[in-house]
Amino acid sequence: MLTIRNALITDLRCVLSIDPTTRQGAAFVQAAVEKGECLLATENDTFVGYGVMDYGFFGRAFVHTIHVDIAHRRLGVAGRLFREFEKRCTSSRIFTSTNLSNLPMQAFLNSRGYVLSGMVQHLDEGDPEIFYSKGLR
Q: Where would a tag sit more exposed on the chain, N or C end, judged by fewer CB atoms within 10 A?
């Protein structure tokens, strides 16, 4: 059974083991855990994914990262994490982003009702970051 809960500081090593090459870095994930901004997905007490959302994007909710263990992808884990972030969101619109090259994430966001909101060049050279949003209220 899949469970979504706030990550605890005692979970940090397990969270980082799900995504050892996290683009944001271990310090970012640790700060998110400490602030209660990191959700953890577990299945039968096994850590299978996590996500981070905060309100530092123009005062709006922004999902910085969602990462699902490779063995648990395409099983609804990312959808459950997003659903929980959307449920907890206190702003009227939620934002996230992905690289232009990440076609599976773009398809996932489109399937959840997210719409293209813009693009930023030069974050990852040659692979623009595209931003999506979804109205919640």
A: N
